[in-house]
Amino acid sequence: MDSLKEACFTWLVIRRACLTHEVLQRRGIQICSRCYMCEQEVEENGHLFLHCRMTTDLWNMFICILGVSWTMPRTTFEVLTRWQRIGKRGSKRDWWKNVPACIWWTLWKERNGRCFEGRTSSSQTIKMRCLSLLFFWCKQDLVGEVDSLVEFIGQL
Ligand SMILES: [Zn+2]
């Protein structure tokens, strides 16, 4: 990162202020809530950004790459504070710090595509998009070391 837009969005997520159905309902808007990603649960902050099936896939992808053990906390706020501790493994790179923001941003874009444009991407596409976004955010720090997304993934 850190474009201001993404940083602000992350802040909205951990403050549970990003405009999910949960927030709209809290503001008194009548809505029949359904998660756009899995269509099974109501759309609330913790579900959409932490526990939804699609979301779990994204988290697992990075947890697997990092080789860490991780139990998902209940809130996005806890995730952000706990996630900052996982990387202290002598790694000189701190690309992993961007992972929560990257997952949340990717999900929110997909969610809005489904919600407003009726556009649905496959889970494979969403995963690829998430990795590409992380690469894009980290690229500046990796100039001269990594030229392509494939190389980047190889180095994670
Ligand atoms: Zn869901």
TrEMBL record:
<dbReference type="InterPro" id="IPR026960">
    <property type="entry name" value="RVT-Znf"/>
</dbReference>
<dbReference type="Pfam" id="PF13966">
    <property type="entry name" value="zf-RVT"/>
</dbReference>
<protein>
    <recommendedName>
        <fullName>Reverse transcriptase zinc-binding domain-containing protein</fullName>
    </recommendedName>
</protein>
<feature type="domain" description="Reverse transcriptase zinc-binding">
    <location>
        <begin position="4"/>
        <end position="59"/>
    </location>
</feature>
